């Protein structure tokens, strides 16, 4: 059986490598997929949550559980009850827009 921490490390490595490529292209002035990069990050987090936190009941709980594992800054956002899953992930995936007015920054 695969250790949960090994699984988290493997998922993070895949996610970060994929997204880093897009971010590096954008920083070099290439027309990189900012929307796709953001949406990809949120989808990867949701998928990772389903793998690492399979006993959670909903996709949102899986998303939030894994996001908290990504660091203290993200954990604080979830603990502050900011609806990252609904406003950002679902907003981008279903409406092509963020669910409400906000400032987005890389932590």
Description of the molecule:
This protein is mainly alpha-helical and 107 residues long. The protein has one domain (4-95). Helices cover 69% and strands 0% of the residues. The chain is built from five helices and no strands. The chain has helices spanning 4-27, 34-52, 59-69, 72-79, 84-95. The longest helix has 24 residues, at 4-27. It is globular and about 45 Å long. The model has no long low-confidence stretch (mean pLDDT 85).
Set out the fold topology:
Blueprint: H1 4-27, H2 34-52, H3 59-69, H4 72-79, H5 84-95
Helix pairs in contact: 1-2, 2-3, 2-5, 3-4
Report the order of strands and helices.
Answer: HHHHH
Shape: globular
Distance between the termini: 33 Å
Report the C-alpha radius of gyration, rounded: 14 Å
Secondary structure: helix percent: 55-70%
Number of domains: 1
Please identify the structural class as seen in this structure.
Answer: mainly alpha
Q: Give the integer mean of the pLDDT values.
A: 85
Biggest sheet overview: none
Low-pLDDT sequence parts? none
What is the number of helical segments per DSSP (H or I, 4+ residues)? 5
Strand fraction equals under 5%
Features:
single chain; 107 residues
């Amino acid at each position: 059986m695969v250790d949960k921490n090994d699984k988290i490390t493997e998922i993070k490595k895949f996610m970060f490598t994929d997204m880093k490529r897009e971010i590096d292209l954008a920083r070099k002035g290439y027309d990189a997929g900012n929307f796709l990069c953001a949406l990809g990050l949120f989808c990867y987090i949701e998928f990772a949550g389903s793998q690492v936190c399979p006993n959670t009941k909903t996709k949102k709980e899986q998303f939030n559980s894994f996001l908290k594992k990504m660091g203290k800054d993200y954990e604080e956002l979830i603990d502050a009850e900011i609806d990252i899953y609904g406003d950002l992930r679902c907003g981008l995936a279903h409406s092509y827009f963020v669910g409400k007015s906000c400032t987005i920054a890389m932590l």
